[in-house]
Design brief:
The chain is an alpha/beta fold. The protein has 13 helices and 13 strands. The strands form four sheets. It has a seven-stranded parallel sheet with strand order 3-2-1-4-5-6-11, sandwiched between helices. The longest helix is centred in the first third of the chain and has 23 residues. It starts with 8 loop residues before the first strand and ends in a 20-residue tail after the last helix. The protein binds nicotinamide-adenine-dinucleotide. Nicotinamide-adenine-dinucleotide (NAD) binds next to helix 1, strand 2, helix 5 and strand 5. The site of nicotinamide-adenine-dinucleotide (NAD) has 31 residues, from helix 1, strand 2, helix 5 and strand 5.
């Protein structure tokens, strides 16, 4: 229920036609008193179909544009006058960063710089109260910390050790954000989350790709031994965490966000196959497990990621509430119910690049 007596909080969301940004906008419109400007370039990963249900919602306005274009960013910030900027916009796929890193440097590094630069110019001119309330939240990844062995987990004090061009570009953007905080005083926050899953994820990442390939009876390619571990975070849990950080996080701090759900890639693929066997009893591809195919490992494939969520739990009272088995079932059913969305987003995408093993990216399995 919207309280009309309060001014709506104006939030500039970048990358809001993508997976997590889109979910974040739905989360905010459903539970908070906000006005959203959504700036997205609509690359292969961003789609109007993802935000079609809110096309006529007066609290959300979409702008197609590049976060690395200073004029675009400047004009939008000056017109919209945000209370906060949440930066999701990025090139986000590790395999694509190996095949062609240039776009990652452009968006993740130059784009973040441009946002910081224009945000700072705007922030400096705000009256004192508005200046102290303004926030710049940069959404980053646990991949900046590199890889873990069989034990341990990443804390906010873990050293930066990015391995892939994607992780290196996100690490660079984190350092820029920290520099804008320390040098100019811009009120920034950074989050590092583990691998997300849920509705609206472009079907090139492990979970949606496995679901769609299995439904189509295509091979389910698994890198190496399939024993690499990820700490799976349901996107709705992530969105709640981001809002908690934006509202109550200490300025200048970093918060790690994880799902407390470590699974090997093989376990994830096996679970999806089982779910599909149950959900589509008439499928000619049952048992879906027989579609599994081990392929040459990704170069520099990080072995394990795991997040220590002690800080965000202690300071902000946030914990993941989704159970992996239940949320994976829910996610799989969402894809089965939304094949039209899958067809629309993959039909309009640019599929020019090949994965590191030469296969088209839509056929590779990654996380
Ligand atoms: P995504 O690839 O689904 O969406 C990225 C969005 O950014 C797309 O809508 C795309 O059109 C837009 N975009 C790309 N370049 C742009 C540019 N130059 N200007 C404006 N918009 C541009 O990504 P995602 O999975 O939703 O990830 C969102 C953020 O969260 C990223 O910063 C990513 O690094 C981070 N993250 C993702 C995960 C994950 O598991 N997906 C985990 C940790 C952190």
């Amino acid at each position: 229920m919207v309280d009309k007596s309060r001014e709506l909080k104006r939030i500039l969301v970048t990358g809001g036609a993508g997976f997590i940004g889109g979910n974040f906008i739905y989360y905010l419109l459903g539970s908070e008193q906000v006005q959203i400007a959504n700036l997205d370039l609509l690359t292969y990963a961003g789609h109007m179909e993802t935000i079609a249900p809110i096309a006529n919602d007066l609290r959300h306005r979409f702008y197609q544009g590049d976060i690395a274009n200073a004029e675009t960013v400047h004009t939008l910030i000056q017109q919209f006058r945000p209370h906060a900027i949440v930066n999701f916009a990025a090139e986000s796929h590790v395999d694509r960063s190996i095949a062609g890193p240039a776009g990652f440097i452009h968006t993740n590094i130059n784009g973040t710089y441009t946002l910081l630069d224009r945000a700072l110019a705007y922030w400096r001119e705000l009256p004192p109260d508005a200046r102290s309330e303004f926030r710049f939240l940069h959404v980053s990844t646990d991949e900046v910390y590199g890889s873990l062995g069989d034990t341990g987990s990443f804390t906010e004090n873990s050293p930066y050790q990015p391995h892939s061009p994607y992780a290196a570009s996100k690490a660079a953007s984190d350092h820029l954000v920290q520099a804008w905080r320390h040098t100019y005083g811009l009120p920034t926050l950074i989050t590092h989350s583990s691998n997300n899953y849920g509705p609206f994820q472009y079907p090139e990442k492990l979970i949606p790709l496995t679901i769609l390939n299995a439904v189509a009876g295509e091979p389910l390619s698994i890198y190496g031994t399939g024993r690499n571990v990820r700490d799976w975070l349901y996107v709705a849990d992530h969105c709640r965490a981001l809002w908690a950080v934006l509202e109550r996080g200490r300025v200048g701090e970093t918060y790690n966000i994880g799902g407390n759900s470590q699974r090997t890639n093989l376990q994830v693929v096996d679970m999806i196959c089982q779910i599909l066997d149950d959900e589509i009893p008439t499928s000619p591809h049952r048992p879906h497990l027989r579609l599994k195919k081990f392929v040459e490992d990704r170069p520099g494939h990080d072995w394990r990621y795991a997040i220590d969520t002690t800080k965000i739990k202690r300071e902000l009272g946030w914990m993941p509430i989704e159970n992996f088995e239940r949320a994976l079932l829910q996610t799989t059913c969402w894809y089965l119910d939304n094949l039209r969305w899958c067809t629309a987003v993959t039909a309009s995408a640019h599929h020019g690049n090949a994965g590191p093993d030469g296969t088209p990216l839509l056929r590779s399995v990654t996380s």
